[in-house]
From TrEMBL:
Belongs to the protein kinase superfamily. ADCK protein kinase family. It holds the Pfam family ABC1. Coiled coil: none annotated. This is Protein kinase domain-containing protein. GO terms for cellular component: mitochondrial inner membrane. One of its GO terms (biological process) is lipid homeostasis.
Length: 59
């Protein structure tokens, strides 16, 4: 992430908010959360975008 100019603190903050919303507001849990299932990419505006892969969602 550092090499691509992505702020790790921004990613950490977004991941926390993402999982909190998923669990507490939507009632879902990503059943296979590991680094291989989290894609982080830089948007054209320069912010970090998080994409969850292989959801394995459960309610």
């Amino acid at each position: 992430m550092q090499r691509n100019g992505i702020d790790r603190f921004e990613v950490s903050d977004k991941l926390g908010k993402l999982y909190s919303e998923m669990i507490f507001r939507k009632g879902y849990v990503h059943s296979d959360p590991h680094p291989g299932n989290i894609l982080v990419r830089k948007t054209p505006s320069g912010t970090a975008e998080i994409v969850l892969l292989d959801h394995g969602l459960y309610q």
